[in-house]
């Protein structure tokens, strides 16, 4: 397993992904939009968010690089739009890393089941580094 880079954009993620596909001659990315995700009946997804990129990834020179747009209304600062993603197939190791990283930090999303992972959480560590941790079964 490796630590992967997650780049966040302010509405221009598709353009960036297309650019990197050409520059690095990669396969075309499969893009999931916020509108593609299961909708919460108690929360109306804003129309402006429906076509924004929720998640995609490219293999660039042998490394996975993940991309998304920030959700409308969420803070966005150019230069601080990079997070580190840990994708593990060992849930105990993932939980241990999460607990260690949150010490002195700020939890953005507690570890929980989502529609894409049975165990996902995000936090900012005490040094200001943003982390996403996700369980993914490997074949």
Describe what this molecule looks like in 3D.
- The chain has 139 residues and is α+β, with helices and mostly antiparallel strands.
- It has helices at 13-23, 91-102; strands at 3-9, 32-33, 53-60, 63-69, 82-88, 106-112, 120-124, 130-135.
- An eight-stranded mixed β-sheet has the order 2-3-4-1-5-8-7-6, covered by helices on one side.
- The radius of gyration is 15 Å and the shape is globular.
- The model has no long low-confidence stretch (mean pLDDT 91).
Order of strands across the widest beta sheet?
Answer: 2-3-4-1-5-8-7-6
The biggest sheet, with number of strands, parallel, antiparallel or mixed sense and barrel status, is:
8 strands, mixed
In helices, the fraction of residues equals: 10-25%
- The helix-strand sequence is EHEEEEHEEE
Pfam family, one: 3-dmu-9_3-mt
Protein name: PhnB protein
InterPro entries: Glyas_Bleomycin-R_OHBP_Dase, PhnB-like
Organism: Lysinibacillus parviboronicapiens
List keywords for this structure.
139 residues, alpha+beta, 8-stranded mixed β-sheet, 8 strands, globular, PhnB protein, Glyas_Bleomycin-R_OHBP_Dase, PhnB-like
In short:
With 139 residues, the chain is α+β, with helices and mostly antiparallel strands. It contains 2 helices and 8 strands; from the N terminus they run βαββββαβββ.
Secondary-structure blueprint:
Blueprint: E1 3-9, H1 13-23, E2 32-33, E3 53-60, E4 63-69, E5 82-88, H2 91-102, E6 106-112, E7 120-124, E8 130-135
């Amino acid at each position: 397993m490796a630590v992967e880079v997650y780049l966040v954009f302010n509405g221009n993620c598709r353009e960036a992904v297309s650019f990197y596909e050409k520059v690095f001659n990669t396969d075309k990315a499969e893009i999931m939009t916020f509108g593609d995700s299961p909708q919460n009946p108690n929360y109306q997804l804003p129309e402006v968010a429906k076509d924004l990129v929720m998640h995609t990834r490219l293999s660039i020179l042998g490394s996975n690089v993940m991309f998304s747009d920030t959700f409308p209304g969420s803070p966005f600062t150019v230069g601080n739009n990079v997070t580190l993603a840990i994708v593990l197939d060992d849930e105990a190791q993932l939980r241990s890393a999460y607990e260690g990283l949150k010490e002195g930090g700020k939890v953005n999303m507690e570890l929980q089941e989502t529609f894409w992972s049975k165990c996902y959480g995000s936090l900012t560590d005490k040094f200001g580094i943003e982390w996403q941790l996700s369980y993914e079964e490997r074949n």
